[in-house]
Amino acid sequence: MKVLVADDISLLGLQKLDNLADTEVVVRLGMTEAELMEEVKDADALLVRSQTKVTPAVLDAGRKLHVVGRAGVGVDNIDVGHATKRGVIVINAPDGNTIAAAEHTFAMMMSIARYIPLAHQSVTAGEWKRKDFVGVELLGKTLGVIGMGRIGTEVATRARAFKMKVFGYDPFLTEERAGELGIVKTDLERALREADFITVHTPLTKDTRHLIGTEAFELMKTGVRIVNCARGGIIDEAALCVALENGKVAGAALDVFESEPLPANSPLRNAKNLILTPHLGASTLEAQEQVAISVAEEVANILAGKPFKNAVNLPALSAEQLTVLGPVLELGEQVGAFMGQAFSGDLSDVQVTVGGEWTKQDTGFLSRTVLKGLLAQRYADEVNYVNAPTLASQIGLAVSDVQQSRSRVYTSFLSVSASVSGARHTVVGTLYNGSNPRIVEIDNYRIDAEPHGTMIFTYHSDQPGMIGKIGTMLGEAGVNIASMQVGRMETGGEAIMLLCVDRMVPDDVVDAIGEVPGVRRVRSLQLS
Ligand SMILES: NC(=O)C1=CN([C@@H]2O[C@H](COP(=O)(O)OP(=O)(O)OC[C@H]3O[C@@H](n4cnc5c(N)ncnc54)[C@H](O)[C@@H]3O)[C@@H](O)[C@H]2O)C=CC1
Ligand SMILES: O=C(O)C(=O)COP(=O)(O)O
Predict the structure, then answer these.
(1) Is there an atom of ligand 1 within 6 Å of 75 CB?
(2) Cis ω on the peptide bond leading into residue 261 (within 30° of 0)?
(3) Are 230 and 360 contained in the same domain?
(4) Where is the ACT domain (predicted)?
(5) Which listed residue (66, 70, 86, 279) is catalytic?
(6) CATH code assigned at 159
(7) ipTM surpassing 0.90, yes or no?
(8) Cα(286)–Cα(284) distance, integer angstroms
(9) Which residues sit opposite 249 in a β-bridge?
(10) Could you tell me the pTM of the whole model?
């Protein structure tokens, strides 16, 4: 396994990966896109911070790539959509740098309240201008926090310790949570109109790009002070320069920029009362160690096929949920694979129904595992849990999830029903004793088969001699039958047969079975 490290990531994390058997950690900092495309060709994992751009071209070049690990929070430098399409897991380290970013925000806020960097420059230039640097106190002032996630919340609690009044704006902030934090939940307009200090802590999205622009500045009090330690682009830099120049904004502090590194000719470099740091929010020893360890552990788990928790492009599944749902998810993949191989043809829609006790669990992940099994027939190893829904929508396959609280015969079951080349087929599975997978129904025929290994599946007329004929043909080809299941609706009608065999059945034998009079369809299945 090759783990390619493209940004400066703490050795404490990298050593964890380097210590793994069969894993080589290759550190190459400051690569151009072309160099990165070359290095990533044989990499299983790519680790980055905010500097390296993980573009579609880089992801396409990484043919073996399983995972991109971001040692930090923001993944706006990674084309997550393209990674998802390619089936590459993107993980981040969401908790490790929260305190570092919150403390940096506070350092910035105090610096603009008391002109610390400007006063420092003045003193080192030989001046002693006490009158020019009369600041303001935080006590009693109103702080508007835009984005009350992990960092926004830590900033808000620190501001309360400074006896500030805090307004929090975040679509997910509840009155109850605001009450617990001792802050006021407001809308954006009130936060902008009434705040003396404003700090942004959202990701950069299409909704937050230039959230603080000309119109927002117009709403603000004259003399407001603003901090951005989240993402460049949330504040419109050109509009900020104007507001600093005309005095609407008394001071601002930016750690992040629309373009990084900040261009040499950026007007921000000469703006009045503006302090700048080069994206240092997460740059503490503690934060860097924490994010590196977190990302290394996650990547190690992913490469070893073990559960992981911080995927950005997969629904979250806790280790606890995985313990309970693991066998159900595995069953989903097996039933999907059975369906895909037993009824190959043009798929137009698939319905995944969970019934009985399992409906009490969050089974949102289940349709991904079913799709992975179902689409493996068409995409082989290219399909995984990450890209299965994308590949399904690419081929126009509509997927629906249904919960059915009343169980049929079984305490819990999973039913996959799909339209294949115009015909509807259904396969039902369950777990015996909570962990042994079984296929218990195929198109309303009751059976009981373990979805495992090599199988021969037929649709045929219920007539004497069928089982014997097929058994003899397999025997003559040297294929041993381990178990056999037959099902029929009525005597002499249509029937199914599912044989578990000990080895692959040669294609010519499968074809010969298909030609036996009365056999309507035969398929050879290979389940893992
Ligand atoms: N300067 C630096 O070095 C660092 C920057 N960051 C950045 O800080 C930001 C926040 O990080 P966390 O608190 O860890 O993330 P988080 O995901 O915990 O919080 C983000 C919050 O923003 C809210 N939000 C999203 N869209 C919104 C909108 N339109 N209006 C209002 N609220 C909105 C979300 O509901 C969420 O509560 C991210 O952009 C992250 O990349 C994080 C660490 C270090
Ligand atoms: O975690 C984040 O979102 C950050 O912005 C930190 O970026 P960095 O890892 O210091 O390049």
Answers:
(1) no
(2) yes
(3) no
(4) 455-527
(5) 279
(6) 3.40.50.720
(7) yes
(8) 5
(9) 224
(10) 0.83
